[in-house]
Amino acid sequence: MNGMAGMGKTTIASTFCERVERRKLLAASFFCTRNSVECRDLALCKILEQNSGIRLGNMQRQFEQLLKEPLQEVKDAIPDKLVVMIDALDECDDRHGTEPVLDMLFNYAAHVPLKFLVTSRPESEIYGKMSAHTQSQATIHLHDIENSLVQSDIQQYLKEELSTVFPGEVEVEQLAQHSGTLFIYAATL
Q: Could you tell me the keywords of this UniProt record (predicted)?
């Protein structure tokens, strides 16, 4: 799923994760952010400490050792349709690192018992990779969704989020109109 800044990718990803987690189908979620390298570095350091040989292999071998092989061993014991959410892939520090990550996902996703949902801004490297693999995945471009549908979604979001302060229908409608098609405006009220 891709869309311009403020269109609601992270809000959608977060809501999706909550719903999938309630059904016990969320395998993992990672919300990338330029502001917090600690979460990424900490997780990576733990993995590398446990298996120092992994860091010497190429990315394909790392993917196989860390994901494919362990999942193949337990695939009969885990539920079907487990989901991994990767939000804001465009916020990775290494711009050139996103292409190999997407290549690994496209090449190996069919061989692991997981479904991947990736969100990003339409950055050229990521958008190009995603466009080249349209046969193996579904792509949603948020900026292509009709404005009236986005307005309706924002209005519904505001109704639910502001239900504790009891705004009237007119106030919610006005706030939704002020939001335009930007969920970020509604989410920061």
A: Repeat
